Amino acid sequence: MAYFSCNAESAIATCDTYNWELLSKKPRNNRPSKITEFEFSDLHSATDGFSAANLLGKGSHGSVYKAHLHHIKLVAAVKKTKLFHPTAAANPADNEVEILSRIYHPRLVNLLGFGVDSNQCKLIVVEYMPNGSLYDSLHGSGKPPGWVKRTRFALQVARAVQFLHSSNPPIIHRDIKSSNVLIDSKFNSRLSDFGLALRGHVEDVKVKCTPPAGTLGYLDPGYLAPGDLSTKSDVFSFGILMLELITGRNAIDVNYSPPSVVEFAVPAIKSGDITGICDPRIAPPEDAEALRRMGVLAARCVRSRAAKRPGMAEVVECLKGVYRRTRMRPQICISLGRRVGRVVEDSRVVKYEHLEESMEIVRGSTKMGSRRNGKVSSATSVGLRSDVIGDQVGRSKSIGTAREIKLSPSELINDHTIRWRAGLSMKMPTVRLSKSRSVGILQSQRLVNDKYTGVAEEHVVGTRKLEESKLLVDLAENVKLQFKYKGPFPPRALGPLDPSSRRNVILALTVKGGVMCITIPDRHHQKGSHGIG
Ligand SMILES: Nc1ncnc2c1ncn2[C@@H]1O[C@H](COP(=O)(O)OP(=O)(O)OP(=O)(O)O)[C@@H](O)[C@H]1O
């Protein structure tokens, strides 16, 4: 193709199978559609002549415009790149198209097509990301994201980087930073900007001969010469991004001393003072352990010796656990009359690891007969915070005998509906507990997340006094949670499982065939205001 004959690199690309996807009928790499070569006139009219109204932003390699491609019913982003000297060693636009045309991943800002203008400037057409960048989200004037969102963003970016590193040959992004992480319409993060990316093995001539590049603050300090490059340079940049997520600080911010986020955060992480460096604009996470793990992981990623940094597969695994823990609070769990062992075995249990961990805590603590089979089952209060109750009871110890209390049906239960409510300023999802005997978890936060991403992380503030007559749980942001179930009426209420724990109220309600346990972690503990009946 003439498009790639403008410089040496492109010529190689032409000989290589760069354009296979343009030519092949069936898209590969799970790409939903094949890459299109757009007419300039189409892109021109789609962007209203690259008008200022459609300008999305400017980068070092060009300007990005929103494009309404009516003829194919698509909104896209068009990167209008600067004119590069034909003899320049590497044109980022060519490079970006070359690499993106070979890959597709849901956590990347994927290539849709390309074009060229009358000056032979490349036009790169990529998926449109309507919710700005992670940089904007963290450092802009809007409400900063909470911990659930932050850990999810981290995990999603990690997955994207892992995908790149595990490609054959590997792709090293070389410019991982929060402004290159864009947020899509479903508030998922996507890695973008492949202008500096290198595809090849470290021993390949191209990789060995390309001078170091990246963004100050994110750049691996050990990457001083072409030969120093490895996937671990991306790991370093990703570690900075994680520190940015934890602290809410820029990679380098001269308004602080020390200006480097590494120097600010890593000593504190090493000394165990993770909460001391948390973004002060948001409340600390429910699960300090999750944050500690993320902090330790970030500190490992930014180690000065590349060999000591973890690989992205390990990073992803660790972040999966972190995300899982973070989003488990608050949670509402149901165990319908099953033995603990079966719960653990049940592959449908979404939060397997967490379940197992939590069940360790309560094993044998609250035995009650299952109506279904008459066997003794454990009431699995899944999701107990080991950091909250661990000190008192230990992981595998009993947390006490359930005490029966009476809750007034008139106030607590209304037409088989159990309500927790505070001020009602927004509509919340209703969770139906099915009669099915399968074991599952309903997470209020998850459900809320999906629909109300803007308030995802600040739902549970804590428990109020759980009186005989009413159950009132205040939720931040004036959130109401409402759960419906089709159990016997009225349900029998038990709790708390651990009367000595002043920081959790655990309510167990018998429902048909088993027990529903609800754990409400208390973040804003008020002394003396707890206890039941
Ligand atoms: N696919 C997209 N959808 C929506 N907006 C985008 C898209 N790609 C880029 N942008 C916007 O355009 C801006 C410029 O993007 P670009 O990738 O050219 O540069 P950058 O990454 O911000 O900076 P640099 O090129 O110096 O690394 C971004 O900050 C972003 O706001």
Automatic annotation (TrEMBL):
It comes from the Eukaryota. InterPro entries: Kinase-like_dom_sf, Prot_kinase_dom, Protein_kinase_ATP_BS, Ser-Thr/Tyr_kinase_cat_dom, Ser/Thr_kinase_AS. SUPFAM superfamilies: Protein kinase-like (PK-like) (SSF56112). ATP binds at K80. Residues 50-332 form the Protein kinase domain. Keywords: ATP-binding, Kinase, Nucleotide-binding, Serine/threonine-protein kinase, Transferase. One of its GO terms (molecular function) is ATP binding. PANTHER family: PROTEIN KINASE DOMAIN-CONTAINING PROTEIN, SERINE/THREONINE-PROTEIN KINASE-LIKE PROTEIN CCR4. This is Protein kinase domain-containing protein. It comes from Buddleja alternifolia.
